[in-house]
Amino acid sequence: xxxISYGDSIPLGTFDLHSAFENALNFxxxxxxxxxxxxxxxxxxFNVVLKQLPPGAKRLKxxxxxxxxxxxRLACDPEKAYDSSLPKLEIVPGxxxxxxxxxxxxxxxxxxxxxxxxxxxxxxxxxxxxxFERNMLERVKKAVSLLEAGSYAKGARxxxxxxxxxxxxxxxxxxxxxxxxxxxxxxxxxxxxxxIEEVYKNASTxxxxxxxxxxxxxxxxxxxxxxxxxxxxxxxxxxxLARAARAALRNGHTSGAxxxxxxxxxxxAGLRAS
Length: 274
Description:
The chain is 45% helix and 15% strand. It is α+β, with helices and mostly antiparallel strands. The protein folds into 2 domains: 3-82, no CATH class; 93-273, no CATH class. Strands 8-7-6-2-3-4-5-1-9 form a 9-stranded mixed β-sheet, covered by helices on one side.
């Protein structure tokens, strides 16, 4: 069992198995999960990246110098720690606007059918045929309108837990939205602190995985794929931006796309506030 890297936000303690999937084993903390993942999933604030996932693992213990997966001990080499902080960049607002428009078009063409891409392409609403799906669609549009009108608490409450999947689409959107706001606050000196506080305060759910992503977004922490995407948004290199966006879409079924949709809205709100 080889340790490739580990996130810089993993606390010390002992954690029991929460859930197991093909590409991730999640271990329960009080309000978060720590995930053992493979290279396909990659680095993240609370991720431990292993060459191979240990089948049947039940307990994770973290200490200052070692990780214990059941009875297996792995040394924590500081050089393998992943820096999950938001990238600090020189951003030209015009370039960011253009790249956000490019990313919207990319999502319209490449995001899964039942993702939140319909916010950029009304014709995509045709994929939502069931009553539950139509109700969800209308609630998403209402929530986004509230956010854009500055009703951050109400918008977050409408979105939280909304949708289907391991992490509901509304939670993924809110994680992306918080990340976009934080990215703009860091790099554009945007006055969005009130929006960040109101959204986060009203976004928490009983879904530990969603809450982990929301907490990371609030704290300005991102996984490796999103960090690359954010870096590309600041550059005038749209071929590289497309590759980074394609990698981001590989997070879950619709989760990557829904996060990116929220990210765009958050970045645009930050640009308007800068």
